[in-house]
Amino acid sequence: MIDLDHINAQFSGISFEVARVSQAFVEAAQVLSRPSVIFRPRIFLDGNQWCALYGENIQDGVCGFGDTPDQASRAFDREWSDLKPKQK
Questions:
Q1: Quick one: DSSP state of residue 86?
Q2: Which residue from 8, 26, 51, 86 has the least number of CB within 10 angstroms?
Q3: pLDDT per position as a tens digit, 11-39
Q4: Strand order through the sheet with 42-46
């Protein structure tokens, strides 16, 4: 005789794992699509903070500052996202 409860339990377990793997792929895609990952700004100490800089200098480039390299990268992402297209 077929144990439907056992089959349902197995299916639920598999469905849960598929959902977890799916979520992991979504999270990885989000990380890989961050501007700081795509454009790879230089990250360096500037005074007492870290700077993530894309471009020749702070005035002409895009930069973010933070207490850690991760915070600087996240600030860079926000700055990049706030960029407005230049008017002609």
A1: P
A2: 86
A3: 787 888 888 999 999 999 999 999 999 99
A4: 42-46, 49-54, 62-66
- Within 8 A by CB and 6+ apart from 46, the residues are 65
Q: How many distinct structural domains can be found in the chain?
A: 1
Buried b (16+ CB within 10 A) or exposed e, 27-65: eeeeeeeebbeeeebebeeeeeebbbbbeeeeeeebbbb
Residue 68 lies in a domain: yes
What is the span of the domain harbouring residue 40? 4-81
Give the global pTM: 0.72
Of 62, 20, 60, the closest CA to residue 38 belongs to 62
Instruction: Write out the two tokens for 62.
Output: 């895009």
Question: Is 26 among the domain residues?
Answer: yes
Asked whether residue 88 is assigned to any structural domain, the reply reads no
